[in-house]
């Protein structure tokens, strides 16, 4: 437990508010001098997150100097818990139904106790590294986190970046697009990926993501769909693209383990549960609210899907842990992709 912390003197909390106006929402940033700027309604969420990302990139601070900003404010952003502990990470908080967004440094304990919040993964909102001379492939270093962790963090980020009503099929596509994006903010998604996910042309899913202002379709050929990513925060993904492609492949193979014929929600929940299992294990535990948040579904839909996955032998067991708000599960060994 952290009893005290060094005062860095740097406030790493940025807050923006989307104020509705007759001509469209206005972005008001508490850290910027200007009073606000008008946004395009369908892209207001994306532009707000991009603005927060800009502040984070412009104000880097070494990890050892960062402190839990929630604790500095008396932990007023969440219910009581046992105290601050764990590493400091960037936390994205959604308040007032999406009209206010906050990006801040917070410890693991405060992050877990804060509702409607997502830990921003290492793949997003980090300063871009300067170009370096390429080394031979045999000397290339393996970058952390692994595929399982990268997928879990990206699902968590998408839960905040996408509207709550975006469906499971669109979330599966969004995950693949985010991980496969190149340096030009474009993604080429093979039709084979869509067929593996049993999505077909997925016209409704593409429409949802377009209407959310998250991506823009460019072309659809015989072999692939090409899109341009509008989510500016994704442009700062730091790990090498081969690592992200490996995570996209892990996500695809894991989702497909939900058995042929399963719907998109079953595949999404299977992927989410697998990403929360410790490496090399089939069982996991997480807050129920966290799973529903990452899958974009209400509690009753989660329970119905878990029952379906147990009937189809994807799950060996699921139920409540000793903590009432926690979910515990065990996947069949054949479901977990190494």
Short note summarizing the structure:
With 338 residues, the protein is of the alpha+beta class. It contains eleven helices and twelve strands.
Biggest sheet, spatial arrangement of strands: 3-2-1-5-4-6
Could you estimate the helical fraction of the residues in percent?
25-40%
Number of helices: 11
Which word captures the global form? Answer: globular
Structure, explained:
The protein has eleven helices and twelve strands. By secondary structure, it is of the alpha+beta class. It is globular. The two termini are 34 Å apart.
Write the layout of secondary structure elements.
Elements: E1 13-19, E2 26-29, E3 37-38, H1 44-58, H2 69-72, E4 88-95, E5 100-107, H3 108-113, E6 117-119, H4 147-161, H5 168-180, E7 186-190, H6 191-196, H7 203-211, E8 215-220, E9 224-229, H8 241-255, H9 264-275, E10 283-287, H10 288-295, H11 299-311, E11 315-320, E12 326-331
Antiparallel strand pairs: 1-2, 1-5, 2-3, 4-5, 4-6, 7-9, 8-9, 10-12, 11-12
């Amino acid at each position: 437990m952290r009893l005290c912390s060094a005062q860095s003197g740097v406030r790493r909390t940025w807050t923006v508010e989307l104020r509705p106006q007759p001509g469209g929402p206005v972005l008001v940033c508490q850290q910027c001098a200007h009073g606000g700027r008008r946004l395009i309604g369908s892209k207001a969420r994306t532009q707000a997150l991009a603005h927060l990302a800009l502040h984070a990139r412009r104000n880097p601070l070494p990890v050892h100097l960062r402190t839990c900003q929630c604790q500095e404010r008396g932990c007023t952003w969440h219910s009581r818990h046992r105290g601050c502990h764990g590493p400091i990470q960037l936390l994205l908080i959604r308040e007032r139904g999406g009209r206010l967004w906050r990006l801040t440094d917070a410890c693991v304990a405060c992050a877990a106790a804060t509702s409607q919040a997502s830990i921003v993964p290492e793949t997003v909102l980090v300063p871009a590294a300067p170009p370096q001379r390429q080394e031979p492939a045999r000397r290339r270093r393996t970058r952390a986190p692994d595929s399982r962790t990268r997928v879990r963090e990206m699902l968590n980020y998408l839960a905040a970046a996408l509207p709550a009503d975006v469906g499971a099929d669109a979330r599966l596509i969004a995950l693949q697009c985010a991980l496969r994006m190149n340096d030009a903010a474009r993604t080429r998604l093979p039709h084979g990926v869509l067929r593996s996910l049993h999505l077909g042309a997925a016209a409704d899913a593409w429409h949802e993501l377009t209407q959310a202002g998250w991506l823009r379709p460019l072309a659809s050929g015989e072999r692939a769909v090409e899109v341009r990513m509008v989510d500016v925060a994704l442009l700062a993904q730091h790990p090498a693209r081969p690592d992200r492609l490996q995570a996209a492949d892990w996500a695809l193979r894991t989702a497909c383990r939900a058995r042929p014929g399963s719907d998109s929600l079953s595949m999404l929940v299977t992927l989410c549960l697998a990403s929360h299992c410790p490496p090399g294990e089939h069982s996991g535990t997480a807050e129920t609210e966290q799973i529903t948040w990452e899958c974009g579904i209400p509690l009753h839909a989660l329970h119905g899907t878990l029952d379906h996955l147990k009937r189809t032998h994807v799950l060996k067991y699921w139920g409540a842990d000793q903590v009432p708000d926690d979910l515990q599960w065990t996947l069949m060994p054949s479901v977990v992709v190494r």
